[in-house]
User: What shape does this take?
Amino acid sequence: MTACLHLPNHSTAIPPVPDPLSAPPAKPEPRDFREGRAGFLHSWDMVTAVNGPGTRLTYFLAGCPLRCQYCHNPDTFGQDQAEQVWAEDLIRRIRRYQSSFNLTGGGLTLSGGEPLLQPAFTAGLFREAHRLGVHTCLDTSGFLGALADDQMLADIDLVLLDLKAGDESLYRQVTTQTLAPTLAFGNRLAALHKPVWIRFVLVPGLTDHPDNIRAVALKAAAWPNVARVDVLPFHQMGRHKWAELGLPYQLADTPEATREQVEQAVAIFRSQGLNCPG
Ligand code: SF4
Assistant: This one.
């Protein structure tokens, strides 16, 4: 017996055939995440002169092993609330913006959170972007640098490396983690002659002591591949997120860094021969 024998004799009663184009996308399985076909995305944007040269498509990947006191995106700490995305969809968007990259000298930046928390996903996006001839940039704390294999590094044109403090004790106070892996990653990038921009967040009362800035500057100056250092003044734009997440925010009463404080930090970096735009 076939089912059609039981259908009324008019065409509108025929059950609709699902349209494959309008079918909901398949939900990634754990294996898709492990093998880099899918990942956890917090958000994305297209901006100029931030996150690397030119106009950049920046994907902010979710999840981070650090807990920086000054983090302005604490909603990227975890992956529970993140969007589950397919790599091929993110690559499609990279293709869409290729002409903007060509016009502005921009490209793709993977930021976070910490992109190296999803090494297979990150590696796959960089590999495909590189294959398309798109400039690639990794924005990282370097804490998980050991998870970036040589192939991934070959597919990265520029690393934005956050040096959050100049010694272990202050680094742990700022981030809850240890500085050594970041230094090891920096040494590896130097050995590979991989272009690096160092980023240093100037937080009044936390990272702004001249001894700390000098210690960061000395480490950066020891790496000949460091093309520039950016001093990023602490701001309070992320304060409301800590409150919304119900997380204790230790810098609630910390003032934003002033122009003069930034200039003093810039002078210390320049005194070590580093290119540090004011
Ligand atoms: S490394 Fe970046 S994303 Fe992670 S806690 Fe620190 S500032 Fe936030």
Q: What stands out?
A: Residues 187 and 223 are 7 Å apart (CA to CA). The chain is about 35% helix and 20% strand. Strands lie at 38-48, 55-61, 83-86, 107-111, 135-140, 158-162, 196-202, 226-233. The chain has one domain: 36-271.
